[in-house]
Design goal:
heterodimer; A: 117 residues; seven-stranded mixed β-sheet; 0% helix; B: 111 residues; mainly beta; six-stranded mixed β-sheet; five-stranded antiparallel β-sheet; globular
C-alpha cells in the first residue's frame, strides 16, 4: 500500500458528461501528480501541483483541469468526455516540489478506471 | 517533446533466466533515471533508480546499467522469477524537466 488513495475506483459515464476524480496524497507529501494510462500505452503526465500551486504541466487537454486544496488532496476534473478519454487515471505524490518530481520517488495510488460509453 | 524510447514492448523469459529491458533518451541534461514496476490492477512503484555519476547500480536481483555516451540505460533482472511478471517502465528526468516515461515493457516469466 503506497499510502495514496484515489476515489472512485471505477467510473462509467457517457460522452459529453463531466466527472471528478479525487486523490489524497501520502501523509507529509506536498506534491500531487496526475497521469493518464490508456490501454497498452505508457504513462502520460498530465499535471503536477505542489502545496496548492500548479508546478508543471504536461499533455493535459483544455477539457481537463485540476486543483489541489489546502488539505493537499487533489481533484482532476474531466469535462465534455469523449470515447478516447477512457483510460486509467493515476495520482501520485512526492515529498517535495521540484518540477516533474525530479529525483524524487513518486508514490502511485491504485488508479481510477474511467469508461466513457 | 523529449522522448524516452523503451524496448522491447513485451518479453517472455524462462524462470531463472535474465530479463533485459532497454531505454534510450535524447536530452543530455537528464540526470535521473528510475525504473518503475507495475502489477496488474496496481499503480506503478519505484523499483530502482540511477544517476549518471555511476555506470551501474545493483539492488538484489535488479541492476541498472547506464551508458552516458550512448544515452542509454537498461534494466537487468537476474534469476527471473514468476513473481517478476509485471509491466516495467523506465523514465528520465532532470532539473526543471518533467519526468518523461517510456511506453512500458510487459514481462512474462514462464515457470
Amino acid at each position: 500500500d503506497s499510502g495514496v488513495t484515489q476515489t472512485p475506483k471505477h467510473l462509467i459515464t457517457a460522452t459529453g458528461q463531466r466527472v471528478t476524480l479525487r486523490c489524497s496524497p501520502r501523509s507529509g507529501d506536498l506534491s500531487v501528480y496526475w497521469y493518464q494510462q490508456s490501454l497498452d500505452q505508457g504513462l502520460q503526465f498530465l499535471i503536477q501541483y505542489y502545496n496548492g500551486e500548479e508546478r508543471a504541466k504536461g499533455n493535459i487537454l483544455e477539457r481537463f483541469s485540476a486543483q489541489q486544496f489546502p488539505d493537499l488532496h487533489s481533484e482532476l476534473n474531466l469535462s465534455s468526455l469523449e470515447l478516447g478519454d477512457s483510460a486509467l487515471y493515476f495520482c501520485a505524490s512526492s515529498v517535495g516540489g521540484l518540477a516533474g518530481g525530479h529525483g524524487e520517488t513518486q508514490y502511485f495510488g491504485p488508479g481510477t478506471r474511467l469508461l466513457v460509453l | 517533446q523529449q522522448q524516452v524510447k523503451q524496448s522491447p514492448q513485451s518479453l517472455i523469459v524462462q524462470k531463472g533466466g535474465i530479463s533485459i529491458i532497454n531505454c534510450a533518451y535524447e536530452n543530455t541534461a537528464f540526470d535521473y533515471f528510475p525504473w518503475y514496476q507495475q502489477f496488474p490492477g496496481k499503480g506503478p512503484a519505484l523499483l530502482i533508480a540511477i544517476r549518471p555519476d555511476v555506470s551501474e547500480k545493483k539492488e538484489g536481483r535488479f541492476t541498472i546499467s547506464f551508458n552516458k555516451s550512448a544515452k542509454q540505460f537498461s534494466l537487468h533482472i537476474m534469476d527471473s522469477q514468476p513473481g517478476d511478471s509485471a509491466t516495467y517502465f523506465c523514465a528520465a528526468g532532470g532539473s526543471n524537466y518533467q519526468l518523461i516515461w517510456g511506453a512500458g515493457t510487459k514481462l512474462i516469466i514462464k515457470p
